[in-house]
Amino acid sequence: MIITVKPSITSADFKELSHFIAQFDESVNSLNFLGQNVLFLPKNTLSKEQVNAIETHSAVEKVVFPPQAYQLCSKEWRNEPTSFSIGNTQVGPNQLSIIAGPCAVESEEQIFTVAKKLAELNVEFIRGGAYKPRTSPYSFQGLETEGLKLIRKAADAYGLKVVTEVVDRSVLDDVAQYADVLQIGARNMQNFFLLKELGRIDKPIFLKRGMSAKIHEWLAAAEYIIANGNPRIILCERGIRTFDDSLRNTLDVAAIPLIKDLSHLPIFADPSHGTGNRKYIEPMAMAAVAAGADGIMVEVHPNPDLALSDGDQSIELRSLEKLLNSIRNLRN
Ligand code: PEP
Ligand code: MN
C-alpha cells in the first residue's frame, strides 16, 4: 500500500502523518521519491477502518493499492524519464553512459591499466567484481575487500566512478563503503531480502535482469528497492536464457524499448554477458544503443586470454575505442 500526500503539506505535517499511520503499522516507511513524499506500508495488514482513517486524514492525497507488482517505477506513476547525478556525471535520457572494466578485479596492475585507458577514452564508470558469484566453487571467487580497495584506488587516481557487485547482505556495507554504484547481479535479482536492504543505501543500484526473469518480475524487483527507500535505480538487460544455447545468453534487445514504455527508470545493456563472445559485443552494443539504451556495460581486460573470469566475453583495451566510436556515432 502506498500513500501520497498533498503537495502543500509541510515536512512537520508529513512527520505527523507518518506517526499517525505508525499506530496502525509500525513498518511504515517514508520515502522521498524523486522529490515527491510518499509513504509505503510493506505489510498490508490494515483493517478497513484503519485505511479509512488514513484516507480521510487532512494531509493525505490518496491511498493506492498497486494493481500490479510494480507502481513507483511505472510510467503511469511518473511519466517523465528519470535521470539523476552520480557525482559529476548524469545518468538518464540524452546520455550515453559507459561502464567498462574487467569481470573481476585481479591485481593492482590490471585494474590501474584499465582505469588509465578508460580515463583516456572519457569513460565515466569503471567496473570490476571483488565478490564474484561463480557457477563453480573451484573458480576464482574474487579478491573481496582487497579488490574493493584496489578498484577504489584506481578509480580515484583517474577520476572514475566505481560499479561493483553486492552478492549478499553480509557484504553490503563493505561494498557500499567503496562503490559509487552497487550492482545486483542476475543471480540475485529476486533475492528480496537483499533488495529490501538496498532501500536504506544512499547509492544508486545497477539492477541486472535475472537470466530467466520476465519483464514484470524485473520491474517488481526494482519496486522492492524503491519502495524501501532508494529511488536511484538503473536497469540492465544482460541477456536471458532461451531454448538456443549457441551463445551464452540471448540479449533481449526488444526489452529496451519495452522497458521505456513501462517504466521511467534508465535502462542499460550489457552485451558482454548478453553474448558471451567478444566478437559480437560491438554489434550488440550498437543494437542496444539504436534501441534506445541509456548506457552500455562492457567487459574489458588488458589480456582477455589470461582473465580469471569471463575472458571470452571481454574485449581488449585497444578494441574499446572502436566500440565507443561506433556507439557514440549512433547518437550524433
Ligand atoms: C558481471 O557483471 O560480472 C556478472 C556476474 O553479471 P551477471 O550478474 O549479469 O551474470
Ligand atoms: Mn562477468
Global Rg: 21 Å
The number of E-state strands comes to 15
Shape: elongated
Content-based structural category: alpha/beta
Order of helices and strands: EHEEHEEEEHEHEHEHEHEHEHHEEH
Characterize the largest beta sheet: strand count, sense, and whether it forms a barrel.
8 strands, parallel, barrel
Enumerate the strands of the largest sheet in spatial order, edge to edge or round the barrel.
Answer: 7-8-9-10-11-12-13-14
Total DSSP helices: 11
Percentage of residues in strands: 15-25%
List the ligand species.
Answer: phosphoenolpyruvate, manganese (II) ion
What features would you describe in this structure?
The protein is α/β, with parallel strands linked by helices. It has 11 helices and 15 strands. The chain has helices at residues 11-22, 48-55, 108-120, 145-158, 172-178, 192-198, 215-227, 255-262, 271-275, 281-290, 317-331, and strands at residues 2-5, 29-33, 36-40, 60-64, 84-86, 89-91, 97-101, 125-127, 161-165, 181-184, 205-208, 233-237, 267-269, 295-301, 315-316. It has an 8-stranded parallel barrel, surrounded by 6 helices. Helix 7 (215-227) links the parallel strand 11 (205-208) and strand 12 (233-237). The chain is elongated, with a radius of gyration of 21 Å. The mean pLDDT is 96. Phosphoenolpyruvate (PEP) is lined by residues 103, 129, 133, 185-187, 208, 238, 273.
